[in-house]
Design a protein that fits this description.
147 residues, Arc Repressor Mutant, subunit A, 5 helices, Alpha-Beta Plaits, 2 domains, 20% strand, alpha+beta
Length: 147
């Protein structure tokens, strides 16, 4: 991974819809050389896709929270069942299996506090493998580099 490839990745992270001509100009390459590098990064799996960055508030998402979830049994079956349930839940936009005193960290995005309460009670609260849920409400995000 040389300096130019790093620059290409940085530019594409900022704007995945940048034209190849503009990208080439920003990184100091000819358009054909730039395109070859981007295609090689895609072929190697360094670039695995492109995403749209959404304005969550315009989509009606006004409540974001992180929740830690502890399971009551530490078996593979319990983890798989929990992960399947989270994969089906549209409110869960991220689910991470983590180390520490709990098993999972979730990013949950819903319309408002009543919608979160319904998710907490009616989705996570009914899962037999869930032992503990701790919620951290996001009050602001001064830096959020996710795509």
């Amino acid at each position: 991974m040389d300096h130019i490839n790093q620059q290409i990745l940085q530019e594409l992270t900022r704007n995945g819809r940048i034209s190849n001509l503009d990208l080439a100009e920003r990184v100091g390459l000819s358009p054909s050389a730039c395109l070859r590098r981007v295609q090689e990064l895609e072929r190697r799996g360094v670039i695995s896709g492109y995403r749209a960055v959404l304005d969550r508030t315009r989509l009606g998402i006004g409540f974001v929270a992180y929740a830690t979830v502890g399971l009551n049994t530490h078996t593979k079956a319990s983890q798989e069942a929990f992960e399947r349930a989270m994969a089906r839940a549209p409110e869960v936009v991220e689910c991470h299996n983590i180390t520490g005193s709990v098993e999972y960290l979730l990013r949950i995005e819903v319309a408002d506090l009543p919608a979160y309460k319904a998710f907490h009670t009616d989705v996570m609260g009914i899962l037999p493998q869930v032992n503990a849920i701790t919620t951290f409400v996001v009050m602001g995000s001064p830096k959020d580099a996710r795509g």
